[in-house]
Backbone:
């Protein structure tokens, strides 16, 4: 994905294509690899009818059933841990320490982001650290195969069908390539954006670049109601924006806590 550029205004029009996904007759979902190839053919026909380009349809047809993605989707046990257990498993103390160092060394970047979006450094650094260990663990799963597999899988087919249409739109626009790689559920870049979020909240440039990814993350939070100067702990106004980032309650609370500690409030994350 390195080197691509786009502006948010130029991709808003793609929302109409993504939204049309629900109007199509849904391809038959399945719970094993056995029906994936037939599903691809049916979905490809639907995608053509929705105006997806031949190049994007070809990319879709080149996807393979992502067994590792299905295993990861079924095995998200860490989200059932207590907050203390979750922080220990995810390295909360290390994220706080590294986040505090980056807040100092990249002070001008985080000051500019806060001025533009109203989001302080703490939650941005908490998300960056939690998602990819500050860019060191961005995943090696084929993005298009992961999203296609989850769109086919019956467990969350509707959600990932929207994501797949968004991914195909990104392919159409040259933003995503058939060989792009990321995490198990199709997340991309330093802070792990899903395809639909790239369309809606990306601010330009490759999300493998930390500055671009952090700006897009701040834009996501602002778009979900972040108010400059308001608190972001549970029960405070900006916690809802963190909830929009990830649906898991323990993750939300961890981001709020780690962010507060990075911003200089409270002790180092407990183990």
Residues:
């Amino acid at each position: 994905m390195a080197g691509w550029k786009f502006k948010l205004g130029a991709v808003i029009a793609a929302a109409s294509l993504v939204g049309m996904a629900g109007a199509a007759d849904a391809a038959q979902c399945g719970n094993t690899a056995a029906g994936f190839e037939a599903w691809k053919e049916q979905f490809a026909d639907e995608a053509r009818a929705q105006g997806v380009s031949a190049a994007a349809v070809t990319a879709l047809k080149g996807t393979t059933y992502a067994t590792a993605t299905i295993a990861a989707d079924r095995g998200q046990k860490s989200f059932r841990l207590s907050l203390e257990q979750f922080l220990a498993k995810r390295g909360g103390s290390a994220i706080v320490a590294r986040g505090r160092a980056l807040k100092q060394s990249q002070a001008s970047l985080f000051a500019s982001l806060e001025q533009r979006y109203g989001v302080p450094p703490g939650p941005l650094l908490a998300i960056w650290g939690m998602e990819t260990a500050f860019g060191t663990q961005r995943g090696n799963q084929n993005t298009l195969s992961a999203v296609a597999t989850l769109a086919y899988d019956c467990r969350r087919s509707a959600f990932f069908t929207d994501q797949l249409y968004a991914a195909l739109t990104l392919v159409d626009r040259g933003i995503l390539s058939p060989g792009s790689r990321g995490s198990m559920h199709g997340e991309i870049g330093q802070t792990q954006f899903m395809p639909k979020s790239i369309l809606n909240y990306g601010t330009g440039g490759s999300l493998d670049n930390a500055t671009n990814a952090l700006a897009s993350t701040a834009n996501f939070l602002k778009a979900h109601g972040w108010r400059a100067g308001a608190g972001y702990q549970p029960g405070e106004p900006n916690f809802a924006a963190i909830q929009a980032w990830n649906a898991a309650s323990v993750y939300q609370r961890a981001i709020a806590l780690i962010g507060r500690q990075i911003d200089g409030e409270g002790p180092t994350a407990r183990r």
